[in-house]
Amino acid sequence: NDNTNKDNTNNNNKMWQAIILGGSGSVGKCVVNLLTRSNAFQRITTIGRRTVDAFNDNDKIVQHVVEMDKLEQQVEPIAAGHDVAFCTIGIGKPTGTPIEEIMKVEVEYVTAFARACHKAGIKRFQIFTGAGADVSSSVTVLSVYGKKEQAIKEIGFK
Predict the structure, then answer these.
(1) For the whole model, what pTM was predicted?
(2) Angle of helix 110-119 relative to helix 71-79, nearest 10 degrees?
């Protein structure tokens, strides 16, 4: 039984608008798919380095291509009017990836996206992270995830 098509709009019966960074990855595509199937969402805005061909035929999806090093500046005006943000961007399999690249993607880009969304008035921000995330972990990826979570908390979402 698929519950994603039930009308589960928010308290004001307002249709929601979501923005997502990382919609081209495996987790992000699943999130976008679930959002498009939900009657609660009228628009899903994807942010990425490229468009996703599979999203082209869905009227609910609006795709924006951005320069990742200018993410915050480019996303803030796009994010205005959205209700919730999802961030599923990540390295994927970090083994063998230099720590600088992991930090750039997992912390810098995520934090820039979060700041832009917060400045644009979005109150709800959801991130994809990992079990065991802890800034002080001796496992590098868990420490990075902990830094990502800490950075998002400091921005001040509800």
Answers:
(1) 0.88
(2) 40
Crossing angle of helices 140-155 and 110-119, in 10° steps, is: 10
CB 91 within 8 A of CB 102: yes
Backbone φ and ψ for 112, nearest 5 degrees, come out as -60, -45
Contacts of 67 (CB under 8 A, 6+ apart): 74
So what's the pLDDT on residue 12?
A: 63
**How many H-runs (helices) and E-runs (strands) does the chain carry?**
5, 5
Which distant-in-sequence residues (6+ apart) come within 8 Å of 13 by Cβ? none
Tokens of 31: 């999130």
